[in-house]
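User: Sorry, folds how?
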Amino acid sequence: MEEENLIFGTRAVIEAVEAGKDIEKIYIQKGLSNELYHQLRQALRGQAVPIQIVPAEKLKRITDKNHQGVVAYLTEITYYNAEELLAGVFEKGRIPLVLILDRVTDVRNFGAIARGAECAGVDFIIIPSRGAAQINGDAIKTSAGALHRLKVCREDNLKNTLEFLKEGGLQIVSCHEKTDNLIYDADFTKPTAIIMGSEENGISNEYLKRSDIQVKIPMTGKIASLNVSVASGIVLFEAVKQRL
């Protein structure tokens, strides 16, 4: 991440949180426990900000300044609220198309997915607050600027988010290879949220259970899987095709 997005020092990070700054990630030194640390945790209560407990050596590699055991990065984008965005989509008379990424951690994959999503007219992307790619300069560059145009929501509890989307009238479509249904079997003309999982771990079982339909991309070659950014593009443009 760019140096200008770095904040160091517990008090400085608390002030950034209280000022409503969008924070990409906070690193806290292992074993830290003082009054300012507890103030920071209190300020972060209820916010979907990723926190990682790390050894002192990690912080030293990030900065040689007096960080007091706390380092944070400001985001390069603005995060949005999924409930507000979905209401806005319906108000405009659009049929929602939402993309959910479960544990996609590679920044370049994420950037490429965002680029395809913007081209496909996705209304917004939802990512978890933990186990997601950092949206940094590399992600934005790979997205060809799409991340400055496409809205991203960071949610602390994807299970609750899925339930909200279902209650809002969206079907949940999970795309993975361990199913018999093809992407052509899904009706993407309906309000839809598509879940894509990481190449290593796929989609979490708890999210698969909440899906209305599970689909796969048909493949006839010898390699059994696709890069997640390529797979996302294929599924999204099947939705585009059906909606045109």
In short: The longest helix spans residues 228-243. The mean pLDDT is 93.
